[in-house]
Here is the input.
Amino acid sequence: MFECYGKKLLRIDLSTRSVSEEPLREPFIERWVGGMGFGTKLFTTEVPATADPLGPDNTIYISVGPLNGTLAPLFAQTCIVTKSPLTGGIINSYAGGHLAGSLKATGYDVIVFEGQAEGLVYVLVTPDGVRIVDCPELAGASVRVAEAAVKRASGRDDLHTLGIGLAGENRVRYAAVISETRAFGRGGVGAVFGSKNLKVVGVAGIGDVRVADAEGFSAAVDAAYQAFREDLAQPWSLLGSFGQVGTGSGMGLVNEKHALATRHHHFSHFERAEQISGQAIAAQYPTRPVACLGCPVHCGMLHKPVETKWGEIWTRGPEYETTYSLGSLCLNDDPEMLFKANDQAEEYGMDTLSLGVSVAFALECADRGLLPRDALGDGYVLEFGNPDTTIHLIDMIAHREGLGDTLADGVRRASQAIDGGSQEFALQVKGLEFAAWMPERMRGIAVTFATSNRGACHKRAPIGMELMEVIPMDGIEGRAALVAEIQDKVNAIFTLVACRFSEFVLPLEQFVALLNTATGLDYTPERFMQLGEAIWTLERLYNLAAGVEGDQDRLPNICFEVPEDFPPEAKPLTREDFATLLRDYYATRGWNEQGRPTPERLAALGLHE
Amino acid sequence: MVQRLIVDVEKCTECRACELKCSFVHFGLFNPGKSGIRIVSDWPELPRARVCIQCEEPACLPACPTGALVLTKAGVVEVVHELCIGCGLCVDACPYDGIWLDPLSDIAVKCDTCAGRFECVATCFAGALSVGE
Here is the structure.
């Protein structure tokens, strides 16, 4: 059993520069499986609820799971768990690419970073051992430059990296960790790296990845391949369209359904959306699909160098969520501006979602007279639909200059600083900025944004079902229970560590078959779902202790206003409906009216406070 | 002519499922280092594929001092793992970058066509792999 684990953890204390290995015990592995399970259990056990997210008491857990590095399709994600400098609660953040396979092959299931280095360092984990290397020369370097420098210095062409740019060093609270153009985007994990003076981590694993039951695993992989083959062959396949033009392929549909957040949620439809859709960008600019390890979907779009007014850019992306946050939300319709903004976000290392929402917040404040139009100086006008302003403001945020310094703390803190009623429209929950969906339109999104432990995150929502109208977008009957079920399921598959898209195709039973044949464990679908619930509950308990309480399961007031172009047949979100949804959600979860898990529910999950 | 694996790098998505499949077929585990095909990324340019072209007069064969390389009836050079001492002389001898050492075990690794089954081809969703001469 447990052949597919290294069964050990690597702990690196950056303050003392000490490195140690710890065994991962079999009962721990069986209980928490991997990825999000390992990260959440270790984090909630070890990091005090009072820890400053940007202080030495916070800890970073980088983990892989049982299916990483195998042929099982869509299991190429790496998980980072830490305390978010945006929310003050726990955050789990993911990136795909080719990092997870290499990390898995090092033999470490988890790498832990504690403390704070005195100066900027990079860390190498290779067959030659662990090295902590001072790198003052990389201060301020872009992610791409830093990754290349570390790779060169390591002398290994098999090194895979994750690292931060200037934004992480400057503790921009939504700084991302970038791994070879893939982003651990949400929650500010890059700022935590920055607070530890951790610039880049390079891993080179050369080990064998084994499975418990090779024959059974092979059959489970074949079945998964078959499921993807069948899905991708359908003309309507969403994943198929992702593979053709990228994740931006759905923009037309979202726009048609009046669910595309536009001009800071004043509108639900962007009349120039077709200029920045995946189809339009792929048609206009030379692109080719690139995939994460072993992935048949290949949703990453790699662009050849494009000459723009901001210089030559080659980039991978932009992803759908970026075309919302820096596109429709800011009323930007220029694909080349999106290339540039995407490139800035990657080189500085920032979450394009929180970044775009922060820019849009400033534009909205200017519209409402809370900021002067010329607040940026240098002739830049704070107004929607002005690409140059957006590009300039992104630079200011990464450098923490002027208004950029305020916006670098995220819209919750920025709205407290700017005040003037701006808290009412700041697009955030628990301090995390909105992802690309409209609670005004979709009730599953309303519940998900309000209740996610990460804040206003879309990763665990019935988006496809609502958009395709399998269920009515504005229906509330059973919606909270559906969201809770999806939350549990996604948490469970994030232990493996799966890409979110895998769940579009694979039924729960196939995840469990892959897990069991790889590990030798004997999970049932029910037990697997309960694992997801237990992880969610651990996160919730931690957040409660950290002061992220039930009163933060809310939406900003702007979500209860009716967008100007709302279709007549669409039902606006009412406070009554939202209260019902939240009540249903707590009841489904077995939580009390304050959103606190009851002792009975904790006992049923085998968790004890 | 000996059948060999053809890689169309213009179609390749760099997912490297072929590498995982190859190591699984030959060793029953997953390790790109043990794969007889390697995909090397070079963004934003196209990737480079490393794979044996099954040449008619393989330079690797006579370079092996232990008899760990054998020529099959089909004209394919195979590695006998038990006999390989990891000296790397075959790697130096090959002018086509078609054979290398697994960094973990130091065993020579190359494409042996899976006895003509070319099992990686079916894993390639992008259709970048085919069999030719």
